[in-house]
Amino acid sequence: MRQMIIRRLLQTIPLLFFVSIVCFAMIKLAPGDPVLSFVTPNMHADDIERIRHNLGLDRPAYIQYLLWLKQLLQGDLGYSLVNHQPVLGQIIDRLPATAGLMGSAILIAVLLAIPLGLIAGANRNRWIDKIINLIAYIGISVPLFWLAILLIYIFAIKLSLLPSMGMRTIGEESIGDVLRHGILPCSVLAFGFLAGYVRYIRSSTIGQLKEDYVQIQYAFGSNKWTILFRHVIKHVLLPIITLLGMSMGDLVAGAIVTETVFSWPGIGSLGMTAVRGMDYPIIMGITLFSSLLLILGNLAADILYAIVDPRMKVKG
Amino acid sequence: MSTKFKGLVIAMLFTVLLAACSGNSGGSTAATSTGSSTADSGAPKDGGSLIIGVAADPVILNPLYAGDRVSLTIDQALYAPLFQVNNGKKTFYLAESLEPSADQLTYTLKLKKNLTWHDGQKLTADDVVFTINSILDEKQNSFLRAGFIINNKPVQVSKVDDLTVAFKLPQVSPAFEASLVQVSPIPKHIFEGETDLEKSSKNNNPVGSGPFKFKEYKTGEYVTLDRFDQYFGGKPHLDRVTYRIAKDANAANLALQNGEINVQYLDPRDVATIQATGNFDIQSYSEGRLAYLLFNEKSDTGVLAKKEVRQAIGYALNRQELIQTAYTSDQYADPAHSFETPDGLYQTNDVPTYDNDVEKAKQILAQQGISNLKLRMIVQSGNKVQEAVSLYVQQKLKEIGVDVELQNMDSTAFGQKFVDGKATDYELALSGYIMGYDPDAYRILFATGSSSNYTHYSNPQVDKLFEQGSGEGDTTKRAEIYKQLQTIIAEDAPIYPIAYTKTIVAISKNYGGLDQAVLKPVVIFEDLSKIYQKQ
């Protein structure tokens, strides 16, 4: 077990290295020029060239990458090309907003998805299954930005119950205020995650119900709900671990569209601005962070699997 | 999925959609309660706050580096300028006067007395000299540098006394005032000794001299400014101004209706919705911008090198229809004939124009012996105005037998191709520019081989006139030169001017003092201290 963890952790390094090369290459291959975001028509060509030179953008791409890598190995993610603030600081500034929003959305989605998925699976093709399925299909097919605008319209404008945007009322610092602002974006994201999770749990429930242990419980005369919520649930929870492991990347990458619509000050909206301005140090920083969490999340999921399910023997 | 089930899904989706639509139409009446307007009466009141919606985080709160709309807007309240110019009229802010010497080679700037920075320190000639020298310093990367280099020689700035600064110009340059108007001084006592002003952490806690001082900035959320009581223009009416970052235009409009934003730019398409609430003053004003169709004379086919062909294309188009297509109404755009915008010095729209005469267009092409003409037009995909206009151009040119191939590309690719002087694989593109009020600024667009001459237009007479105009001290002669330039360039048609566009701003009826604050391109309000909250 320990060997496995060490090996996996060591594998992370070349993996991240690979991710960073691919990401950097994609940014450099894409059309566009970061300097263009500073250029005004009244600027002289030699002033533009000087800025390009001062930012190191006149060097070949591989040199730029190597310089970036050298910096990274010294623990420095560099500076934004646009506002010249340290990348790490900007990510850390926005991390709580994104982690809080995504964390609660994922948690709510999982807590709702488990009972819904179990009920749907146990009542396959009956009306309740169809309703739950319908909700899941809507969640998958409705664009989240549209749902967001709809919810803002209903709850903020028509009913005046909730604020339409931002993370707090200006000047207010209370947690309650942040929670109030979080309700709408969190609901939208939770709905999006929920749809996927429910489909997952439903199909795994259907599979479990065919297992021998379920038949035995029936033979003992156990109630259907007891079987479902006491026995089947334990087996169904296993794939949830994997799902959660895979969501770890989202936890820091944030949700670009939803954060933008709600003006949520998270990493998603930081990323969007960076992509528009070709601000590669920021894009690289966010990509590295989320890849790292995704990889670690998967590792954690595998370890948990081994602990929870004795049938899974992890080979060292 | 069974067909019955599919039917159910579709039925459900329809109900959701219907609910959304019906909600929209009824929305205007329900929302009015929050900000009902009171009668505009009596003297301006003190107190209250204002929330201005902005589309992005400010890049940098330092006027030497602010190039983006949001930073410029916030800096306008934080940092007072020396003076401003509106429709040729000069308003002095920090400066009391600006006088050129008889030979026009020295400008003497006098500051007002008792000016203070937000931290209480005195604002003096030292700060102005420090600011100009920082702009001139190559290591500091300021945008404004080019304006202080005249014919490759820098302007020399020196302190005469605590309230007087002298600028020595290497040669006569009437455009110098247009460079100085962009300068808002930064405090020497804060920034002195910083090696890189742009990266300086001092920018996170800006100290200015404008009507409002910095309170706090929450990344991705808002920037708050508080009233500065010692503002030289008199104590501002509002206690607080907040710039709220709302990146999604639809969501921002909802927040506007909800009272979470009080001032916000509007797209022409959204005007009707916001107007229907009855809670907003909708103001449109010229932003000194020209929207135009560019003719690339150096494309690999070379077909647009002949001015007759460019004129024929002009004849094939109809400016009024173009404006309707692009801006939904001629209320938000004035037809343009001259390359210079109406806010500029010596501007005249009374110049030759080639417009709306299909027969003439066909005739010219026939005279030139041109048939089966093919043109390529680059279009920013996702840009609704460009997409609509490009389809219109394609359709109109078809009428004169010209085939237009539309090449859609994303905005960065478009931008790069557009500014790349060597791109030869397109003939037509839509663009716009804001060049300021001094016509010398247009030289880089139309003089042979200039940095921003994207049309590759070249006319020795034009080059000579621009050269003369930049160094001509006599106003009457200078006016004559630029009138002549506008005529020649209009005749040569390197671009097809479409419209002088307007900015549309919605302002909650709860606020007054708009006339005194002066609506201004890019920054919304020239002097925010004059805005007050009613009630």
UniProtKB/TrEMBL annotation, chain A:
It comes from the Bacteria. SUPFAM superfamilies: MetI-like. Gene3D superfamilies: MetI-like (1.10.3720.10). Keywords: Cell membrane, Membrane, Transmembrane, Transmembrane helix, Transport. The chain crosses the membrane at residues 12-30, 101-122, 134-162, 182-200, 236-262, 282-308. InterPro entries: BPD_transp_1_N, MetI-like, MetI-like_sf. Residues 95-305 form the ABC transmembrane type-1 domain. It is a multi-pass membrane protein. It is found in: Cell membrane. This is Peptide/nickel transport system permease protein. It comes from Paenibacillus hunanensis.
TrEMBL record, chain B:
It comes from the Bacteria. SUPFAM superfamilies: Periplasmic binding protein-like II (SSF53850). It holds the Pfam family SBP_bac_5. Keywords: Signal. Gene3D superfamilies: Dipeptide-binding Protein, Domain 1 (3.90.76.10), Dipeptide-binding Protein, Domain 3 (3.10.105.10), Periplasmic binding protein-like II (3.40.190.10). Residues 94-450 form the Solute-binding protein family domain. InterPro entries: Peptide/Ni-bd, SBP_5, SBP_5_dom. Residues 1-30 form the signal peptide. This is Peptide/nickel transport system substrate-binding protein.
